[in-house]
Design brief:
The protein is mainly alpha-helical and 207 residues long. It has a single domain, classed as de novo design (two linked rop proteins). The chain contains 9 helices and no strands. α3 packs antiparallel against α5 and α3 packs antiparallel against α7. The N and C termini lie far apart (76 Å).
Length: 207
């Protein structure tokens, strides 16, 4: 009798980890990156207010004519919607931090919520790279804090995408096709390549 019970217990399927446990690394990365991005957005917001009062203000990150927060901060690209872009960062990063903390605490967000978060952050991802290109090719100066936000935005975007793909939020077809690539770290590889390209562009052009 004891042996048969043991066999049945062995044959029983083992409990699968909850999505929050499976994605602990991704949510932890989102939390850390967003926290760093929030600090950078706060610094840029303070600088934006300072520049509004004194356009000739000089900041510690004004290293040269090409590495200058002030030069970027007085450009029209820094206020695309009529107010400092950094204010958007304060909101977006705070939301991501909340989602990451809640998920690490065991909260399971509905599919529609995660897809909305993906869509909104995708816009932020494209916007961050557009701003980088504007600074690099049009303004002719780069802001270190802005570069930091570009990096953290890249990391958060791919972590969020990873979670949505593995959870099947984009549909079972995409989940089935892309899961093997994610298992071998394709998302991490793409993030590293993008960040490496940005670093190479900055080094060869401005340093």
């Amino acid at each position: 009798m004891t042996g048969s019970v043991t066999d049945r217990e062995i044959d029983q399927p083992q409990p699968q980890p909850q999505p929050q446990e499976k994605h602990r690394g991704a949510f932890l990365e989102m939390l850390i990156s967003s926290a760093i991005g929030l600090v950078a957005s706060l610094v840029l917001s303070i600088e934006a207010v300072t520049l509004a009062a004194n356009p000739d203000a000089v900041f510690s990150c004004d290293i040269s004519a090409k590495i200058s927060c002030g030069a970027v901060g007085v450009s029209w690209q820094s206020e695309v919607l009529g107010f400092p872009n950094a204010f958007l960062g304060l909101i977006a990063e705070a939301v991501v931090i909340t989602v990451a903390v809640a998920a690490l605490g065991g909260v399971k967000f509905p599919r529609w919520y995660m897809l909305v978060a993906q869509g909104v952050y995708a816009i932020g991802f494209v916007f961050a790279y557009w701003l980088f290109w504007q600074s690099f090719s049009v303004i002719g100066a780069l802001c270190p804090w802005c570069l930091l936000i570009t990096v953290t935005t890249t990391l958060v975007f791919f972590s969020l995408t990873r979670v949505n793909i593995l959870d099947g939020n984009f549909g079972p077809g995409i989940q089935r096709k892309l899961t093997p690539a994610l298992r071998v770290g394709a998302d991490v590889g793409i993030s590293i390549i993008l960040i490496a390209i940005i670093a190479a562009m900055v080094i060869f052009e401005y340093i």
